[in-house]
UniProtKB/TrEMBL annotation:
Pfam families registered for this protein in UniProt: Jacalin, Metallopep
Start and end residues of each Jacalin-type lectin domain: 561-686
PANTHER family given in the database record: MIP04191P, ZINC METALLOPROTEINASE-RELATED
Organism: Ambispora gerdemannii
Domain of life: Eukaryota
UniProt protein name: 13367_t:CDS:1
SMART domains: Jacalin
GO cellular component: cytoplasm
Length: 700
């Protein structure tokens, strides 16, 4: 890589202590620091900024360094190593403009002026976005210490105050890493923010000034330490064969309950990174007790948790980051865990702990497992993000060599529209879109994906359970409708007969939906009509499980005699839908369809109150809004005349807009029911078919 020289001086090509500087001083050019990862004057949105740059010449002595100095604020200077001209720094920023100076330090070389580069960075916190909260779970009788080697116990690194500093530092590393990844993927300087407060700061070991710094919540559970360390609660515990599953609450549930008991800020929608303090490695059982690596959502809380068994290896301060990611001390497995057999040295332990916990935070921020990167096992390379030198590796670690230390492209596309990652320049939030979820509509040669009036951001394609491709919609509005041609989709993934295609769709509001088996979807969502024509079924909502049904809104009248059948055929008459009766309370119990021939069809139960909605002559149902989760919570019917049924039922679950594509009409419904309606979808056909519906009926 070529880079310009400025602020240059002459320096010899030498090995420290061997060269005659006076005779070789004119032989090479020496460069002041050049910042490559960010431009002077840019705006960023995180407190700790990861910077990559170049300085000097290839044959510098190994211990030259960069000093980062802060002008007009009280944060102390920090020093970062340079390796074969490459350097990476973690730079503290105050809100507003930050005037920085990057100075190259060369041992045993004296020059008249420093090799310095002035730099400006503007930091504006995104206080309007929901933050990531940091929490430490303590048992009722916690000893307030973590597993740590004796040498670290002597420096009190195993005590609670030190653990708080380590978690705070790790969170700022997560933030710096993620901000850099978003920028490299073309999404600007967007990143999640941390919940901060004005308190004694621990991000540097050179002073303990009051600063706006990440707040650590100490969460007490009502469980004792012994109960938390019950082997049956350990995620890595494997009971003897034939042992019945435990009925004990797992650590994730215990953490959630403790957050609920704690109250604010965990009583509303929130995102939480949780560390379990009392985690203990049992060398006799070879089991990490009191540990779980889990992340996801439950109600209004999205939570990622991890045990503290690796925390001894984490940095407390910026000044310790490089040291911790370079420390080759062997893990003493007589007292410390070698998590997953990948933590045999302290620097690898640091990778696993900080990186795997970030993996769980990723789950809390809605990410699934991905093909590569942090949401795979790429966190084993996390050190490469923050250092230019790796133990036992002579190659400088440039950004292109960070390997697994990345967010997969699908991850950053999800982040692009996540509420924690909004920029002030983004379009205003539309709360009315919050609950819409994607739906699937089968057309003649394609599948239409809709999400009400909310846009689609990502479609992931998996074959036989593995990711193979994705379609992203980030440069402009998808208008909430994406049409996938079936044959072109198969061609794009080199599909072969017998392979299972899975489509996973994510909307910009973070709601999702999935076609688990694309071939089955194509096969099962056609309806063959008596005329030989085809109608279609949309992807149904609700989990299903009850008795399946399907009903057309017009049906052929059953004739009682040959004379009546001839008369019916000549008059082209059919029975048509005249009224819908819905039984509902907090959810939809049942639906009855009443026809012009005085017959009716009921699906589901008869609980709740009864709501009747009559259809006038010439009216058509053009749209049905449905809320669903495990069952159908509520619905509203819209007519082409502008009339609506009003909302009927409850308001739980996600919102689906069942509105057929242009040139199609709704001709019936299908789903399943037991004592409630547990799934629901619509049957639709090209609009010209609806003009001859009196001649149609389903071939069962």
């Amino acid at each position: 890589m070529q880079f310009p020289n400025f602020g240059v001086m002459l320096l010899p090509d030498y090995t420290e202590g061997q060269a005659d500087l006076s005779t070789l001083e004119k032989s090479v050019l020496l460069s002041a620091p050049i910042i490559l990862s960010v431009k002077s004057g840019e705006w960023v949105h995180q407190r700790i900024l990861l910077i990559y740059g170049r300085a000097g010449v290839i044959d510098f002595p190994a211990n030259c360094s960069i000093t980062v100095s802060h002008h007009k604020n009280n944060f102390p200077s920090t020093c970062w190593p340079v390796y074969r001209t490459h350097f990476k720094c973690l730079v503290h920023l105050d809100p507003g403009q930050n005037d920085l100076i990057f100075t190259l330090n060369v041992p045993n070389f004296h020059y008249d002026r420093p090799l310095s580069t002035p730099f400006k960075i503007n930091y504006i916190p995104l206080l309007q976005n929901p933050p990531l909260h940091l929490a430490i779970l303590l048992s009722k009788d916690s000893k307030l210490v973590i597993d740590a080697p004796l040498e670290k116990q002597k420096t009190h690194e195993h005590e609670l105050d030190s653990v708080k500093a380590k978690l705070r530092c790790a969170a700022y590393l997560w933030q710096a890493f993620t901000a850099e990844q978003m920028y490299r993927n073309g999404f600007g300087r967007r990143v999640f923010r941390l919940d901060e407060d004005w308190e004694q700061d621990t991000i540097t070991n050179q002073n303990d000034s009051l600063r706006q710094t990440a707040k650590i919540h100490l969460i007490r559970t009502n469980y004792t330490r012994e109960e938390l360390l019950d082997p049956e609660r350990a995620q890595q515990y494997h009971p003897p064969p034939g042992t019945p599953p435990t009925k004990k609450k797992d650590l994730f549930v215990i953490f959630l309950e403790a957050l609920a008991e704690y109250g604010k800020p965990f009583d509303n929608d929130c995102y939480v990174a949780g560390l379990i303090l009392d985690t203990y490695y049992d060398p006799k059982m070879k089991l990490i007790r009191g540990h779980a690596a889990l992340g996801g959502g439950a109600g209004h809380v999205r939570l990622g948790i991890f045990g503290s068994h690796t925390t001894h290896a984490w940095p407390r301060y910026l000044e310790e980051v490089v040291e911790c990611f370079q420390n080759s001390t062997k893990t003493d497995e007589r007292i410390l865990a070698n998590d997953n057999g990948e933590s045999e040295t302290w620097w690898k332990c640091c990778n696993i702990g900080i990186g795997a916990m970030l993996h769980e935070v990723g789950h809390a921020l809605t990410l699934p497992h991905s093909l590569s990167g942090i949401m795979s096992r790429g966190f084993n390379n996390l050190n490469r993000t923050f250092t230019v030198k790796e133990p036992d590796n002579i190659t400088p670690i440039t950004p292109s060599l960070e390997n697994g230390a990345h967010w997969h492209r699908c991850d950053v596309v999800r982040f692009r529209f996540h509420p924690c990652f909004r920029l002030s320049s983004d379009p205003p939030k539309r709360p009315e879109l919050k609950h819409f979820a994607p739906d699937f509509w089968l057309l003649k040669n394609s599948v239409l994906i809709c999400c009400g009036t909310c846009d689609i951001s990502l479609i992931e394609v998996h074959v036989n359970g593995s990711y193979v491709h994705h379609f992203e919609y980030v440069d402009g509005m998808s208008t909430g409708n994406i049409k996938l041609n079936v044959e072109k989709l198969k061609e794009s993934i080199n599909w072969r007969d017998g392979q299972t295609i899975r489509l996973h769709v994510i909307a910009q509001n973070q709601n999702e939906n999935t076609i688990e088996n694309f071939e089955s979807f194509l096969k099962n969502h056609h309806i063959h009509l008596s005329t030989g024509m085809k109608a279609f079924k949309c992807g149904k909502v609700g989990l299903g499980g009850g008795q399946e049904f399907q009903t057309l809104f017009q049906k052929q009248i059953t004739a009682n005699s040959s004379r009546q059948r001839k008369q019916q055929s000549s008059n082209n008459q059919s029975a048509y839908l005249t009224k819908i009766c819905i039984n509902a309370g907090d959810f939809i119990d049942g639906i009855t369809f009443c026809f012009s021939d005085k017959t009716s069809t009921r699906h589901g139960g008869q609980g709740g109150s009864t709501f009747e909605f009559e259809l006038f002559e010439g009216e058509k149902i053009v749209e049905i809004k449905v809320r669903s989760g495990a069952w159908i919570d509520g619905l509203e019917i819209f007519m082409n005349s502008g009339r609506t049924s009003g909302w009927i039922g409850g308001t739980g679950g996600s919102l689906h807009l069942l509105k057929v594509p242009d040139a199609y009409d709704i001709i019936g419904i299908y789903g399943s029911s037991s004592w409630v309606m547990d799934s629901f979808g619509i049957i639709y056909a090209p609009a010209d078919l609806s003009d001859i519906m009196s001649q149609l009926f389903i071939n069962y």
